[in-house]
Amino acid sequence: MVRRGSFLFSAPSGPVAVAGIAGASALLATVLWWPQLDLLTEGFVLVFLLPALVAAFATTPLARAFGGRLELRRGSFLALAVLLLELPIALVWRGALAIWPHQTPSVVFLGAFLAGPAIWFREMSLFGLSRASHSRSLPAASLQPLLSLLGLFLLVPPSLRELVATAFFLAIGFLCAVALLRAADRPLRREFQSSGISLIRPLLDHVGARDPGATRALEAFFDKFAFPADLRVSLLAFGHGGAVNATIALPTVHPGPFAALGASDLPRKLSQRLGPDAGTVLVPHTPSDHDLDLPNEREVEKVGAAARALLGSLGPALDSRASPLVSPYAGSFARAQLFGDVALVVMTQAPAPTDDIAFSVGDRIDRELGRDGGIRLALIDAHNSYVEGRGDITYGTPTAEKLVTDVRAAIAAARARSAPGPIEVGVAVRGDYDIGTHGIGPQGIRALAVRAGGRTSGYVLIDGNNLVLGFRDPIVRALEKVVDDAEVMTTDNHVVHEVDGGINPIGERYSLEALTRDASAVLERAKANLAPADAYFGTRPVPDVQVLGPGFTARLLTSLGDTLSMFTNMVAATFLLLLTSSLVVTFVLK
Protein backbone atom coordinates (compact mmCIF):
# COMPACT_ATOMS: atom_id res chain seq x y z
CA MET A 1 0.00 0.00 0.00
CA VAL A 2 1.57 3.29 -1.06
CA ARG A 3 1.08 6.16 1.33
CA ARG A 4 0.51 9.57 -0.17
CA GLY A 5 3.12 12.17 0.58
CA SER A 6 2.60 15.75 1.65
CA PHE A 7 1.88 18.36 -0.97
CA LEU A 8 4.51 21.12 -0.94
CA PHE A 9 4.59 21.55 2.85
CA SER A 10 3.53 19.62 5.94
CA ALA A 11 2.41 21.68 8.93
CA PRO A 12 4.11 20.76 12.22
CA SER A 13 2.30 18.63 14.76
CA GLY A 14 0.11 20.25 17.43
CA PRO A 15 2.62 19.92 20.30
CA VAL A 16 5.40 21.39 18.17
CA ALA A 17 3.18 24.32 17.14
CA VAL A 18 2.09 24.97 20.76
CA ALA A 19 5.71 24.93 21.93
CA GLY A 20 6.57 27.36 19.13
CA ILE A 21 3.67 29.62 20.12
CA ALA A 22 4.87 29.71 23.71
CA GLY A 23 8.43 30.54 22.69
CA ALA A 24 7.45 33.22 20.17
CA SER A 25 5.01 34.78 22.67
CA ALA A 26 7.75 34.97 25.29
CA LEU A 27 10.13 36.63 22.84
CA LEU A 28 7.53 39.19 21.75
CA ALA A 29 6.59 40.05 25.32
CA THR A 30 10.27 40.43 26.22
CA VAL A 31 10.89 42.76 23.27
CA LEU A 32 7.89 44.94 24.17
CA TRP A 33 8.14 45.19 27.97
CA TRP A 34 11.62 44.28 29.18
CA PRO A 35 12.66 45.09 31.94
CA GLN A 36 9.11 45.74 33.30
CA LEU A 37 8.65 42.19 34.55
CA ASP A 38 5.06 42.57 35.74
CA LEU A 39 3.91 43.94 32.36
CA LEU A 40 6.09 41.42 30.56
CA THR A 41 4.37 38.49 32.30
CA GLU A 42 0.87 39.85 31.80
CA GLY A 43 1.60 40.85 28.20
CA PHE A 44 3.04 37.40 27.48
CA VAL A 45 -0.21 35.80 28.62
CA LEU A 46 -2.89 38.32 27.59
CA VAL A 47 -1.50 39.80 24.37
CA PHE A 48 0.28 36.90 22.75
CA LEU A 49 0.00 33.44 24.33
CA LEU A 50 -3.74 33.18 25.04
CA PRO A 51 -4.87 34.83 21.75
CA ALA A 52 -2.56 32.57 19.76
CA LEU A 53 -3.65 29.40 21.59
CA VAL A 54 -7.33 30.25 21.21
CA ALA A 55 -6.74 30.98 17.52
CA ALA A 56 -4.80 27.73 17.12
CA PHE A 57 -7.72 25.64 18.35
CA ALA A 58 -10.74 27.81 17.47
CA THR A 59 -9.86 28.80 13.88
CA THR A 60 -10.82 25.35 12.61
CA PRO A 61 -14.40 25.27 14.03
CA LEU A 62 -14.92 28.96 13.24
CA ALA A 63 -13.87 28.46 9.63
CA ARG A 64 -16.15 25.43 9.40
CA ALA A 65 -19.07 27.45 10.78
CA PHE A 66 -18.72 29.82 7.82
CA GLY A 67 -18.53 27.06 5.22
CA GLY A 68 -14.75 26.71 5.12
CA ARG A 69 -12.37 23.95 6.04
CA LEU A 70 -9.05 24.10 7.84
CA GLU A 71 -7.21 21.26 9.54
CA LEU A 72 -6.27 21.76 13.17
CA ARG A 73 -2.57 21.37 12.36
CA ARG A 74 -2.79 24.16 9.80
CA GLY A 75 -4.76 26.35 12.22
CA SER A 76 -2.08 25.89 14.88
CA PHE A 77 0.71 26.62 12.46
CA LEU A 78 -1.12 29.72 11.20
CA ALA A 79 -1.28 31.11 14.74
CA LEU A 80 2.45 30.47 15.18
CA ALA A 81 3.28 32.02 11.80
CA VAL A 82 1.52 35.26 12.78
CA LEU A 83 3.70 35.56 15.90
CA LEU A 84 6.84 34.91 13.87
CA LEU A 85 5.77 37.60 11.39
CA GLU A 86 5.24 40.10 14.22
CA LEU A 87 8.58 39.42 15.93
CA PRO A 88 10.92 41.26 13.51
CA ILE A 89 8.55 44.25 13.44
CA ALA A 90 8.69 44.38 17.23
CA LEU A 91 12.48 44.15 17.17
CA VAL A 92 12.69 47.10 14.77
CA TRP A 93 10.39 49.08 17.08
CA ARG A 94 12.57 48.26 20.09
CA GLY A 95 15.67 49.40 18.20
CA ALA A 96 13.96 52.63 17.20
CA LEU A 97 12.90 53.17 20.81
CA ALA A 98 16.51 52.87 21.94
CA ILE A 99 17.72 55.38 19.35
CA TRP A 100 14.79 57.83 19.22
CA PRO A 101 12.90 57.37 22.51
CA HIS A 102 10.81 60.53 22.14
CA GLN A 103 9.84 60.07 18.48
CA THR A 104 8.99 56.35 18.68
CA PRO A 105 5.28 55.53 19.23
CA SER A 106 4.19 53.91 22.49
CA VAL A 107 3.84 50.20 23.08
CA VAL A 108 0.06 50.53 22.73
CA PHE A 109 0.50 51.90 19.22
CA LEU A 110 2.91 49.07 18.42
CA GLY A 111 0.48 46.43 19.72
CA ALA A 112 -2.28 47.92 17.58
CA PHE A 113 0.14 48.28 14.66
CA LEU A 114 0.86 44.51 14.77
CA ALA A 115 -2.83 43.77 14.18
CA GLY A 116 -2.47 44.93 10.55
CA PRO A 117 0.18 42.38 9.49
CA ALA A 118 -1.67 39.71 11.50
CA ILE A 119 -4.98 40.13 9.71
CA TRP A 120 -3.18 40.54 6.35
CA PHE A 121 -1.41 37.22 6.75
CA ARG A 122 -4.38 35.33 8.18
CA GLU A 123 -6.83 36.59 5.56
CA MET A 124 -4.39 35.80 2.75
CA SER A 125 -3.90 32.28 4.11
CA LEU A 126 -7.49 31.43 5.03
CA PHE A 127 -8.90 32.73 1.74
CA GLY A 128 -6.91 30.05 -0.08
CA LEU A 129 -6.75 27.28 2.52
CA SER A 130 -10.27 27.47 3.92
CA ARG A 131 -12.82 29.32 1.80
CA ALA A 132 -12.27 31.61 -1.20
CA SER A 133 -14.69 34.25 0.07
CA HIS A 134 -13.62 37.34 1.99
CA SER A 135 -16.92 37.63 3.87
CA ARG A 136 -16.67 33.99 5.01
CA SER A 137 -12.93 33.88 5.75
CA LEU A 138 -12.77 37.25 7.58
CA PRO A 139 -14.28 36.06 10.90
CA ALA A 140 -11.63 33.38 11.33
CA ALA A 141 -8.91 35.67 9.97
CA SER A 142 -9.70 38.41 12.51
CA LEU A 143 -9.83 36.06 15.52
CA GLN A 144 -6.19 36.22 16.60
CA PRO A 145 -5.58 39.96 16.05
CA LEU A 146 -8.85 40.94 17.78
CA LEU A 147 -8.09 38.75 20.81
CA SER A 148 -4.59 40.17 20.96
CA LEU A 149 -5.96 43.71 20.86
CA LEU A 150 -8.46 42.86 23.59
CA GLY A 151 -5.66 41.58 25.80
CA LEU A 152 -3.56 44.66 25.08
CA PHE A 153 -6.38 47.07 25.89
CA LEU A 154 -7.16 45.23 29.12
CA LEU A 155 -3.51 45.57 30.08
CA VAL A 156 -3.10 49.18 28.90
CA PRO A 157 -6.42 51.04 28.34
CA PRO A 158 -6.29 52.87 24.98
CA SER A 159 -7.03 56.49 24.16
CA LEU A 160 -9.53 57.50 21.48
CA ARG A 161 -6.70 58.18 19.04
CA GLU A 162 -5.26 54.74 19.67
CA LEU A 163 -8.67 53.15 19.01
CA VAL A 164 -9.02 55.11 15.76
CA ALA A 165 -5.51 54.06 14.73
CA THR A 166 -6.39 50.43 15.51
CA ALA A 167 -9.38 50.56 13.18
CA PHE A 168 -7.17 51.98 10.43
CA PHE A 169 -4.51 49.27 10.96
CA LEU A 170 -7.08 46.47 10.69
CA ALA A 171 -8.70 47.99 7.60
CA ILE A 172 -5.35 48.52 5.87
CA GLY A 173 -4.26 44.95 6.60
CA PHE A 174 -7.49 43.50 5.23
CA LEU A 175 -7.48 45.68 2.09
CA CYS A 176 -3.85 44.80 1.36
CA ALA A 177 -4.75 41.09 1.59
CA VAL A 178 -7.64 41.64 -0.84
CA ALA A 179 -5.33 43.46 -3.26
CA LEU A 180 -2.73 40.69 -3.05
CA LEU A 181 -5.24 37.91 -3.72
CA ARG A 182 -6.91 39.68 -6.63
CA ALA A 183 -3.59 40.42 -8.30
CA ALA A 184 -2.32 36.85 -7.83
CA ASP A 185 -5.54 35.43 -9.29
CA ARG A 186 -5.43 37.57 -12.42
CA PRO A 187 -3.25 35.33 -14.67
CA LEU A 188 -5.50 32.28 -14.30
CA ARG A 189 -8.67 34.35 -14.59
CA ARG A 190 -7.36 35.97 -17.76
CA GLU A 191 -6.37 32.67 -19.39
CA PHE A 192 -9.04 30.28 -18.08
CA GLN A 193 -11.80 32.53 -16.72
CA SER A 194 -11.52 30.68 -13.41
CA SER A 195 -10.12 31.48 -9.98
CA GLY A 196 -6.94 29.58 -9.29
CA ILE A 197 -7.07 30.46 -5.60
CA SER A 198 -10.49 28.80 -5.29
CA LEU A 199 -8.85 25.54 -6.42
CA ILE A 200 -6.26 25.51 -3.61
CA ARG A 201 -8.61 24.00 -1.03
CA PRO A 202 -9.91 21.26 -3.38
CA LEU A 203 -6.32 20.49 -4.37
CA LEU A 204 -5.28 20.05 -0.74
CA ASP A 205 -8.31 17.85 -0.06
CA HIS A 206 -7.68 15.74 -3.14
CA VAL A 207 -3.98 15.23 -2.40
CA GLY A 208 -4.37 14.78 1.34
CA ALA A 209 -7.56 12.73 1.55
CA ARG A 210 -8.71 11.87 -2.00
CA ASP A 211 -11.90 13.72 -1.08
CA PRO A 212 -14.49 12.91 -3.80
CA GLY A 213 -16.00 16.40 -3.71
CA ALA A 214 -12.59 17.99 -4.13
CA THR A 215 -11.77 15.64 -7.00
CA ARG A 216 -15.02 16.55 -8.74
CA ALA A 217 -14.31 20.27 -8.32
CA LEU A 218 -10.85 19.96 -9.86
CA GLU A 219 -12.01 17.72 -12.69
CA ALA A 220 -14.86 20.17 -13.41
CA PHE A 221 -12.17 22.79 -14.06
CA PHE A 222 -10.43 20.49 -16.56
CA ASP A 223 -13.76 19.51 -18.16
CA LYS A 224 -14.33 23.07 -19.33
CA PHE A 225 -11.33 22.91 -21.66
CA ALA A 226 -11.49 19.32 -22.92
CA PHE A 227 -12.55 18.23 -26.39
CA PRO A 228 -13.19 14.84 -28.04
CA ALA A 229 -10.56 12.61 -29.61
CA ASP A 230 -10.53 9.09 -31.02
CA LEU A 231 -8.11 6.91 -29.05
CA ARG A 232 -7.34 3.21 -28.98
CA VAL A 233 -6.11 0.57 -26.59
CA SER A 234 -3.96 -2.49 -27.33
CA LEU A 235 -3.40 -5.54 -25.15
CA LEU A 236 -0.59 -8.09 -25.38
CA ALA A 237 -1.52 -10.97 -23.10
CA PHE A 238 0.28 -14.18 -22.18
CA GLY A 239 -1.54 -17.23 -20.94
CA HIS A 240 -2.07 -20.95 -21.25
CA GLY A 241 -5.05 -23.25 -21.02
CA GLY A 242 -7.57 -20.41 -21.08
CA ALA A 243 -6.00 -18.47 -18.17
CA VAL A 244 -4.09 -15.21 -18.65
CA ASN A 245 -0.99 -14.83 -16.50
CA ALA A 246 0.18 -11.38 -17.60
CA THR A 247 -1.13 -8.51 -19.72
CA ILE A 248 0.72 -5.54 -21.17
CA ALA A 249 -1.92 -2.80 -21.54
CA LEU A 250 -1.13 -0.04 -24.04
CA PRO A 251 -3.76 2.72 -24.21
CA THR A 252 -2.94 5.85 -26.24
CA VAL A 253 -3.43 7.89 -23.07
CA HIS A 254 -0.96 10.04 -21.15
CA PRO A 255 -1.02 9.29 -17.39
CA GLY A 256 -1.60 12.86 -16.26
CA PRO A 257 -2.28 15.62 -15.44
CA PHE A 258 -1.51 15.39 -11.70
CA ALA A 259 -2.02 13.34 -8.52
CA ALA A 260 -4.99 11.02 -9.16
CA LEU A 261 -6.93 13.46 -11.34
CA GLY A 262 -8.20 12.23 -14.70
CA ALA A 263 -5.77 9.80 -16.29
CA SER A 264 -3.12 10.32 -13.63
CA ASP A 265 -2.42 7.09 -11.71
CA LEU A 266 -3.50 5.32 -14.92
CA PRO A 267 -1.50 2.12 -14.23
CA ARG A 268 -3.48 1.43 -11.06
CA LYS A 269 -6.81 2.53 -12.52
CA LEU A 270 -6.48 0.44 -15.66
CA SER A 271 -5.24 -2.59 -13.73
CA GLN A 272 -8.28 -2.41 -11.48
CA ARG A 273 -10.64 -2.10 -14.43
CA LEU A 274 -9.10 -5.07 -16.23
CA GLY A 275 -9.46 -7.14 -13.08
CA PRO A 276 -8.06 -10.54 -12.14
CA ASP A 277 -8.89 -12.08 -15.53
CA ALA A 278 -5.95 -10.11 -16.97
CA GLY A 279 -3.45 -11.66 -14.56
CA THR A 280 -0.63 -9.32 -13.58
CA VAL A 281 -1.12 -6.09 -15.54
CA LEU A 282 1.74 -3.91 -16.75
CA VAL A 283 0.82 -0.45 -18.07
CA PRO A 284 3.98 1.06 -19.59
CA HIS A 285 4.05 4.49 -21.21
CA THR A 286 2.87 4.61 -24.81
CA PRO A 287 3.67 7.25 -27.46
CA SER A 288 1.57 10.11 -26.07
CA ASP A 289 2.04 13.44 -24.33
CA HIS A 290 -0.02 15.86 -22.24
CA ASP A 291 -2.32 16.50 -25.20
CA LEU A 292 -3.84 13.11 -24.35
CA ASP A 293 -4.38 13.66 -20.63
CA LEU A 294 -7.94 12.72 -19.66
CA PRO A 295 -9.84 15.30 -17.58
CA ASN A 296 -11.95 13.01 -15.37
CA GLU A 297 -12.78 9.49 -14.21
CA ARG A 298 -15.62 9.15 -16.74
CA GLU A 299 -13.15 9.22 -19.61
CA VAL A 300 -10.85 6.78 -17.83
CA GLU A 301 -13.81 4.45 -17.51
CA LYS A 302 -14.38 4.64 -21.29
CA VAL A 303 -10.83 3.42 -21.84
CA GLY A 304 -11.16 0.81 -19.09
CA ALA A 305 -14.42 -0.51 -20.55
CA ALA A 306 -12.82 -0.83 -23.99
CA ALA A 307 -9.84 -2.68 -22.47
CA ARG A 308 -12.14 -5.09 -20.60
CA ALA A 309 -14.11 -5.81 -23.77
CA LEU A 310 -10.88 -6.31 -25.72
CA LEU A 311 -9.50 -8.73 -23.12
CA GLY A 312 -12.40 -11.07 -23.76
CA SER A 313 -11.88 -11.06 -27.52
CA LEU A 314 -8.10 -11.29 -27.93
CA GLY A 315 -6.83 -13.46 -30.75
CA PRO A 316 -3.63 -15.52 -30.69
CA ALA A 317 -0.49 -14.55 -32.58
CA LEU A 318 -0.81 -15.87 -36.14
CA ASP A 319 2.23 -18.16 -36.11
CA SER A 320 4.55 -19.81 -33.63
CA ARG A 321 7.73 -17.94 -34.47
CA ALA A 322 9.25 -15.85 -31.70
CA SER A 323 12.46 -13.94 -31.07
CA PRO A 324 14.35 -12.58 -28.10
CA LEU A 325 14.52 -8.84 -27.44
CA VAL A 326 16.79 -7.54 -30.22
CA SER A 327 18.62 -4.27 -30.89
CA PRO A 328 19.52 -3.82 -34.58
CA TYR A 329 22.73 -1.81 -34.02
CA ALA A 330 24.55 0.31 -31.47
CA GLY A 331 22.80 3.60 -30.83
CA SER A 332 19.38 2.42 -32.02
CA PHE A 333 16.40 4.12 -30.41
CA ALA A 334 14.37 0.91 -30.69
CA ARG A 335 14.53 -2.73 -29.63
CA ALA A 336 11.97 -5.34 -30.67
CA GLN A 337 10.77 -8.78 -29.71
CA LEU A 338 8.59 -10.80 -32.08
CA PHE A 339 5.64 -13.04 -31.13
CA GLY A 340 4.37 -14.38 -34.46
CA ASP A 341 2.88 -11.40 -36.29
CA VAL A 342 3.10 -9.17 -33.19
CA ALA A 343 6.17 -7.00 -32.54
CA LEU A 344 6.72 -5.62 -29.06
CA VAL A 345 8.85 -2.49 -29.59
CA VAL A 346 10.55 -0.58 -26.77
CA MET A 347 11.84 2.90 -27.65
CA THR A 348 14.35 5.02 -25.76
CA GLN A 349 17.03 7.63 -26.47
CA ALA A 350 19.02 6.68 -23.36
CA PRO A 351 21.69 7.44 -22.36
CA ALA A 352 20.54 10.75 -23.89
CA PRO A 353 17.44 12.37 -22.35
CA THR A 354 14.21 10.60 -23.29
CA ASP A 355 10.71 11.71 -22.45
CA ASP A 356 7.37 11.78 -24.27
CA ILE A 357 7.06 10.51 -27.83
CA ALA A 358 4.21 12.36 -29.53
CA PHE A 359 1.13 10.30 -30.45
CA SER A 360 1.51 11.45 -34.05
CA VAL A 361 4.95 9.82 -34.22
CA GLY A 362 3.67 6.56 -32.78
CA ASP A 363 0.67 6.65 -35.10
CA ARG A 364 2.94 7.09 -38.12
CA ILE A 365 5.06 4.12 -37.03
CA ASP A 366 1.96 2.03 -36.54
CA ARG A 367 0.57 2.92 -39.98
CA GLU A 368 3.78 2.67 -41.98
CA LEU A 369 5.47 -0.27 -40.32
CA GLY A 370 2.53 -2.01 -38.76
CA ARG A 371 -0.72 -2.06 -40.68
CA ASP A 372 0.93 -1.34 -44.04
CA GLY A 373 3.73 -3.84 -43.29
CA GLY A 374 1.52 -6.72 -42.30
CA ILE A 375 2.58 -6.76 -38.65
CA ARG A 376 0.80 -5.73 -35.49
CA LEU A 377 2.73 -3.36 -33.23
CA ALA A 378 2.79 -2.97 -29.46
CA LEU A 379 4.71 0.30 -28.96
CA ILE A 380 6.28 1.30 -25.64
CA ASP A 381 7.97 4.58 -24.78
CA ALA A 382 10.49 3.40 -22.16
CA HIS A 383 10.60 6.93 -20.64
CA ASN A 384 13.79 6.14 -18.76
CA SER A 385 16.30 9.02 -18.91
CA TYR A 386 15.17 12.30 -17.35
CA VAL A 387 16.44 15.81 -17.98
CA GLU A 388 13.95 18.60 -17.46
CA GLY A 389 12.63 20.06 -20.71
CA ARG A 390 14.56 17.66 -22.96
CA GLY A 391 13.97 14.32 -24.65
CA ASP A 392 10.54 14.78 -26.26
CA ILE A 393 10.18 13.39 -29.78
CA THR A 394 7.82 15.45 -31.95
CA TYR A 395 6.50 14.85 -35.43
CA GLY A 396 8.63 15.93 -38.40
CA THR A 397 11.91 16.27 -36.51
CA PRO A 398 15.18 14.50 -37.37
CA THR A 399 14.85 12.57 -34.12
CA ALA A 400 11.42 11.30 -35.16
CA GLU A 401 12.80 10.23 -38.55
CA LYS A 402 15.62 8.33 -36.84
CA LEU A 403 13.09 6.66 -34.56
CA VAL A 404 11.03 5.46 -37.53
CA THR A 405 14.17 4.09 -39.19
CA ASP A 406 15.31 2.38 -35.99
CA VAL A 407 11.92 0.77 -35.36
CA ARG A 408 11.92 -0.63 -38.90
CA ALA A 409 15.44 -2.00 -38.36
CA ALA A 410 14.55 -3.46 -34.96
CA ILE A 411 11.56 -5.32 -36.39
CA ALA A 412 13.69 -6.65 -39.25
CA ALA A 413 16.35 -7.80 -36.78
CA ALA A 414 13.73 -9.52 -34.61
CA ARG A 415 12.34 -11.31 -37.67
CA ALA A 416 15.81 -12.49 -38.59
CA ARG A 417 16.36 -13.85 -35.07
CA SER A 418 12.92 -15.47 -34.75
CA ALA A 419 12.47 -19.23 -34.72
CA PRO A 420 9.52 -21.56 -34.37
CA GLY A 421 8.91 -23.00 -30.96
CA PRO A 422 7.12 -22.49 -27.66
CA ILE A 423 7.56 -19.50 -25.39
CA GLU A 424 7.62 -19.33 -21.60
CA VAL A 425 6.54 -16.36 -19.53
CA GLY A 426 6.94 -15.46 -15.87
CA VAL A 427 5.85 -12.40 -13.93
CA ALA A 428 6.53 -10.92 -10.48
CA VAL A 429 5.59 -7.80 -8.52
CA ARG A 430 6.93 -5.84 -5.59
CA GLY A 431 4.56 -3.17 -4.32
CA ASP A 432 5.65 -2.05 -0.83
CA TYR A 433 6.87 1.41 -1.85
CA ASP A 434 6.08 4.90 -0.61
CA ILE A 435 5.86 7.83 -3.01
CA GLY A 436 7.45 10.28 -0.60
CA THR A 437 10.26 7.95 0.44
CA HIS A 438 11.00 6.08 -2.78
CA GLY A 439 9.40 8.15 -5.57
CA ILE A 440 7.62 4.98 -6.75
CA GLY A 441 3.87 4.83 -7.32
CA PRO A 442 1.18 2.33 -6.26
CA GLN A 443 2.05 -0.31 -8.86
CA GLY A 444 5.59 -0.63 -7.52
CA ILE A 445 8.08 -2.62 -9.60
CA ARG A 446 6.75 -5.23 -12.03
CA ALA A 447 8.86 -7.66 -14.03
CA LEU A 448 8.07 -9.84 -17.03
CA ALA A 449 10.47 -12.60 -18.11
CA VAL A 450 10.04 -14.19 -21.55
CA ARG A 451 12.00 -17.19 -22.83
CA ALA A 452 11.80 -17.31 -26.64
CA GLY A 453 14.14 -17.76 -29.57
CA GLY A 454 16.71 -19.51 -27.41
CA ARG A 455 17.20 -16.59 -24.99
CA THR A 456 15.49 -15.11 -21.94
CA SER A 457 14.39 -11.47 -22.16
CA GLY A 458 13.36 -9.36 -19.18
CA TYR A 459 11.22 -6.25 -18.86
CA VAL A 460 11.16 -4.27 -15.61
CA LEU A 461 8.49 -1.59 -15.25
CA ILE A 462 8.74 0.93 -12.41
CA ASP A 463 5.64 2.97 -11.55
CA GLY A 464 6.85 6.56 -11.64
CA ASN A 465 7.79 9.52 -13.77
CA ASN A 466 10.98 8.78 -15.68
CA LEU A 467 14.37 7.67 -14.39
CA VAL A 468 17.27 9.87 -13.31
CA LEU A 469 19.70 10.45 -16.18
CA GLY A 470 22.42 7.80 -16.20
CA PHE A 471 20.52 5.20 -14.15
CA ARG A 472 19.12 3.19 -17.08
CA ASP A 473 22.37 1.63 -18.32
CA PRO A 474 23.68 0.30 -14.96
CA ILE A 475 20.23 -1.09 -14.12
CA VAL A 476 20.04 -2.84 -17.50
CA ARG A 477 23.55 -4.25 -17.03
CA ALA A 478 22.51 -5.66 -13.66
CA LEU A 479 19.30 -7.13 -15.13
CA GLU A 480 21.34 -8.80 -17.87
CA LYS A 481 23.07 -10.81 -15.17
CA VAL A 482 19.65 -12.33 -14.49
CA VAL A 483 18.46 -12.71 -18.10
CA ASP A 484 20.13 -12.49 -21.49
CA ASP A 485 18.50 -9.24 -22.68
CA ALA A 486 16.65 -6.63 -20.62
CA GLU A 487 15.07 -3.20 -20.53
CA VAL A 488 13.94 -0.98 -17.65
CA MET A 489 10.96 1.31 -18.19
CA THR A 490 8.76 3.72 -16.25
CA THR A 491 5.02 4.34 -16.45
CA ASP A 492 5.24 8.18 -16.39
CA ASN A 493 2.60 8.05 -13.65
CA HIS A 494 1.96 11.65 -12.56
CA VAL A 495 0.66 10.57 -9.18
CA VAL A 496 4.25 10.93 -7.94
CA HIS A 497 4.09 14.70 -8.55
CA GLU A 498 1.92 15.28 -5.49
CA VAL A 499 4.80 15.12 -3.01
CA ASP A 500 7.14 18.01 -2.35
CA GLY A 501 9.74 18.10 -5.07
CA GLY A 502 7.49 18.24 -8.10
CA ILE A 503 8.60 15.96 -10.96
CA ASN A 504 10.09 13.38 -8.60
CA PRO A 505 11.92 11.15 -11.13
CA ILE A 506 12.75 7.65 -9.97
CA GLY A 507 16.23 7.64 -8.45
CA GLU A 508 15.90 11.09 -6.90
CA ARG A 509 14.64 9.63 -3.60
CA TYR A 510 15.81 6.01 -3.96
CA SER A 511 19.44 5.21 -4.66
CA LEU A 512 20.74 3.52 -7.81
CA GLU A 513 22.05 0.66 -5.69
CA ALA A 514 18.62 0.09 -4.12
CA LEU A 515 16.81 0.32 -7.46
CA THR A 516 19.27 -2.10 -9.06
CA ARG A 517 18.92 -4.55 -6.19
CA ASP A 518 15.11 -4.43 -6.17
CA ALA A 519 14.70 -4.60 -9.96
CA SER A 520 17.07 -7.56 -10.18
CA ALA A 521 15.28 -9.38 -7.36
CA VAL A 522 11.84 -8.91 -8.92
CA LEU A 523 13.11 -10.06 -12.32
CA GLU A 524 14.77 -13.06 -10.66
CA ARG A 525 11.39 -14.07 -9.23
CA ALA A 526 9.72 -13.57 -12.61
CA LYS A 527 12.34 -15.81 -14.21
CA ALA A 528 11.74 -18.44 -11.54
CA ASN A 529 8.04 -18.39 -12.45
CA LEU A 530 8.57 -19.13 -16.15
CA ALA A 531 5.86 -21.40 -17.54
CA PRO A 532 4.60 -22.29 -21.03
CA ALA A 533 2.43 -19.56 -22.52
CA ASP A 534 0.78 -18.39 -25.71
CA ALA A 535 0.74 -14.78 -26.92
CA TYR A 536 -2.54 -12.99 -27.60
CA PHE A 537 -2.94 -9.52 -29.06
CA GLY A 538 -5.65 -7.12 -30.07
CA THR A 539 -6.43 -3.44 -30.59
CA ARG A 540 -9.75 -1.70 -30.01
CA PRO A 541 -10.75 1.88 -30.90
CA VAL A 542 -12.05 4.13 -28.13
CA PRO A 543 -13.94 6.90 -29.93
CA ASP A 544 -15.08 10.25 -28.60
CA VAL A 545 -12.90 10.42 -25.49
CA GLN A 546 -12.50 13.85 -23.92
CA VAL A 547 -8.83 14.93 -23.74
CA LEU A 548 -7.16 18.14 -22.59
CA GLY A 549 -5.69 18.63 -26.04
CA PRO A 550 -2.84 20.59 -27.59
CA GLY A 551 -1.46 23.49 -25.62
CA PHE A 552 -3.58 23.12 -22.48
CA THR A 553 -0.76 21.99 -20.21
CA ALA A 554 1.60 24.66 -21.56
CA ARG A 555 -1.06 27.33 -21.00
CA LEU A 556 -1.76 26.07 -17.50
CA LEU A 557 1.91 25.89 -16.52
CA THR A 558 2.55 29.35 -17.94
CA SER A 559 -0.41 30.76 -16.01
CA LEU A 560 0.69 29.03 -12.82
CA GLY A 561 4.19 30.44 -13.29
CA ASP A 562 2.73 33.92 -13.79
CA THR A 563 0.55 33.42 -10.72
CA LEU A 564 3.54 32.43 -8.59
CA SER A 565 5.56 35.37 -9.88
CA MET A 566 2.66 37.77 -9.30
CA PHE A 567 2.02 36.36 -5.84
CA THR A 568 5.68 36.65 -4.84
CA ASN A 569 5.90 40.23 -6.04
CA MET A 570 2.58 41.22 -4.50
CA VAL A 571 3.44 39.71 -1.12
CA ALA A 572 6.39 42.06 -0.91
CA ALA A 573 4.50 45.01 -2.41
CA THR A 574 1.39 44.72 -0.24
CA PHE A 575 3.41 44.07 2.91
CA LEU A 576 5.49 47.20 2.31
CA LEU A 577 2.32 49.14 1.49
CA LEU A 578 0.76 47.87 4.71
CA LEU A 579 3.76 48.91 6.81
CA THR A 580 4.14 52.29 5.12
CA SER A 581 0.44 53.17 5.34
CA SER A 582 0.28 52.05 8.97
CA LEU A 583 3.35 54.13 9.82
CA VAL A 584 1.73 57.18 8.29
CA VAL A 585 -1.38 56.59 10.42
CA THR A 586 0.81 56.05 13.48
CA PHE A 587 2.70 59.33 13.18
CA VAL A 588 -0.44 61.29 12.30
CA LEU A 589 -2.41 60.02 15.32
CA LYS A 590 0.22 59.31 18.01
Tell me what you see in this structure.
Helix 12 (359-370) links the parallel strand 7 and strand 8. The longest helix is centred in the last third of the chain and has 38 residues, at 552-589. The protein folds into 2 domains: 14-206 and 558-589, no CATH class; 229-547, no CATH class. The chain is built from 17 helices and 14 strands. Residues 1-8 have low confidence and may be disordered. Helix 2 (37-65) runs antiparallel to helix 6 (134-155). 54% of the residues are buried. The protein has helices at residues 14-33, 37-65, 72-99, 107-113, 115-129, 134-155, 160-192, 200-209, 212-223, 266-274, 297-311, 359-370, 398-417, 435-438, 472-479, 512-528, 552-589, and strands spanning 227-240, 243-251, 280-282, 315-316, 321-322, 334-339, 342-347, 376-381, 419-420, 423-430, 445-452, 455-462, 485-490, 531-547.
| Number of separate strands | 14
Q: What's the end-to-end separation, in Å? A: 62 Å
| Individual helix count | 17
Give the C-alpha Rg. 30 Å
By helix and strand content, what is the structural category? Answer: alpha+beta
Mean pLDDT over all positions: 91
Poorly predicted spans: 1-8
Largest sheet: 9 strands, mixed
Strands, helices and their partners?
Elements: H1 14-33, H2 37-65, H3 72-99, H4 107-113, H5 115-129, H6 134-155, H7 160-192, H8 200-209, H9 212-223, E1 227-240, E2 243-251, H10 266-274, E3 280-282, H11 297-311, E4 315-316, E5 321-322, E6 334-339, E7 342-347, H12 359-370, E8 376-381, H13 398-417, E9 419-420, E10 423-430, H14 435-438, E11 445-452, E12 455-462, H15 472-479, E13 485-490, H16 512-528, E14 531-547, H17 552-589
Parallel strand pairs: 2-3, 7-8, 12-13
Antiparallel strand pairs: 1-2, 1-14, 4-14, 5-9, 6-7, 10-11, 10-14, 11-12
Helix pairs in contact: 1-2, 1-3, 2-3, 2-6, 3-5, 4-7, 5-6, 5-7, 7-17, 8-9, 10-11, 12-13, 15-16
